[in-house]
Amino acid sequence: MGGAAADCRPFGPDADDNYSDDQRFMAAALALSRQHTGQTGTNPSVGCVIVKDGVIIGAAVTAVGGRPHAETQALAKAGEAARGATAYVTLEPCSHYGRTPPCANALVAAGIARVVVCLADPDPRVSGRGFAILREAGITVETGVLEAEGRRTLAAYLMRQTKARAHVTLKLAVSKDGMIGRTGAGQVAITGPVSRANMQALRAETDAILVGIGTAIADDPELTVRLHGLEHRSPMRIVLDHHLRLPLTSKLVKTARNVPVILAALRTPPSALPGISPTGGEITPPPAHPFPNSPHASTPAAQASSATPHPTSATPPPASPARTQADGQAASSLISPPVGEMPGRAEGDNLAPTPAHPSADSALAPTPASDTAQALSTRRQHLVEAGVEILEVDDLASLLTALAARGLSSVLVEGGATVARAFLEAGLVDRILLLEGPVEIGEGGIESPLARTDIPQEYSAVRRLRFGEDCCSEYERDFQCLQVS
Ligand SMILES: NC(=O)c1ccc[n+]([C@@H]2O[C@H](COP(=O)([O-])OP(=O)(O)OC[C@H]3O[C@@H](n4cnc5c(N)ncnc54)[C@H](OP(=O)(O)O)[C@@H]3O)[C@@H](O)[C@H]2O)c1
Q1: Confidence (pTM)
Q2: What is the pLDDT of residues 341-370, one digit of tens each?
Q3: For residue 211, how far is its CA from the centre of ligand 1 (angstroms)?
Q4: Ligand 1 contacts CB of residue 221 (under 6 A)
């Protein structure tokens, strides 16, 4: 699994300079739409550009929070000049009455002559109806312009609409010798500052970051956004942790009141998943159930049956105005709610699970073998008191469904090896970002579950970029979603 950073010739859709006028203006609309990715709640971040005689006379992106929509803002900027113009919109204009009239009607009222769209909206309230309103008014409608890039840009929204689950990006930093870290060494720097800045920006446009408890203990990461000016956009942090082993002294727990932390306790233990074993080849015996009082704790059949999430925290995470639900959604479903400034500390520092205070000793260094119902219950209580939410779900798929039901559309899986493998084997990775650095880890290295040479065949390479000395390769898996033209 050697890294192949030497061959990092860039390629990808950004490199295409043979665009038609329609494609160029749509590319501008897509660039605009990306400005608010992750900030429009459950609404898609849409871009709209209004063009007359080859000149852009109005342009806008869906506002932070999801309202107002791009089209109405762009029309307002264009004013009377919009009459007879062409509107380039990255998603089918809406056709339903929410807090404001439909965008399709606004385009008709403004006298737009032609509407060019990337792709249809799978939202059943809109799908095809937006196009119908435009066509009935005599407007020329063209769809499918830069459709692939549009799907990529709106992937998280499309996944939540069509599959009712959050979209998953798996990010792995891999050394030249194919490792993602070194056993017992905590966080090892594999990539350089350009990669790190890009990955921080990616966090800022994602609804949740997820790691396994192995990484949370070994690296003591904070998993926040520490790019200047974007600190307030830290997404919700999720740790897969059956036995509630996350130390109370960890950065994650200490910051849980500022940026929400969820411990997801999955009823299907990872050692029960086919082909998956914890790093180092150890297979732990099936653990005591973390929720002994749960009706699901009793039988294997019961463990496999329900897909319903079971939030068990007494304290739901706080909501930030920028990341609350947009219109048309139940107000009770919160979307990643960060508040407050995060200190600009470096990620890392090996974390031994040391006690926070004497009374919590037993809650801090648990091993599956020593787990008792009482110890689990004590740990649970301490974690909840520290502001951590505990979510009990059946498996990874039901976790993603539960997140989508709360209005979260995108999850960035940041490792480690066991968790990355589990998502891949469950068929739940939609996009892969492979960062290859020039560093060699050598002895004690933890092998990456993926290398450029063994990307599963259902993924296609989208682009490759050079980030300083590192190489970033992006792969995506296509998924079918309803298309109306
Ligand atoms: N280079 C990179 O990109 C990168 C990124 C992150 C981490 N790392 C490195 O990776 C290492 C940690 O990797 P790791 O494999 O030991 O740990 P990990 O993948 O972070 O965590 C694995 C643990 O998560 C828990 N888990 C709960 N539900 C699970 C599920 N459905 N599937 C899989 N795991 C589940 C299990 O513990 P319980 O049974 O106790 O719940 C499992 O042992 C560290 O050295 C870290 O530095 C590297």
Answers
A1: 0.81
A2: 222 223 444 443 333 333 333 334 455 555
A3: 7
A4: no
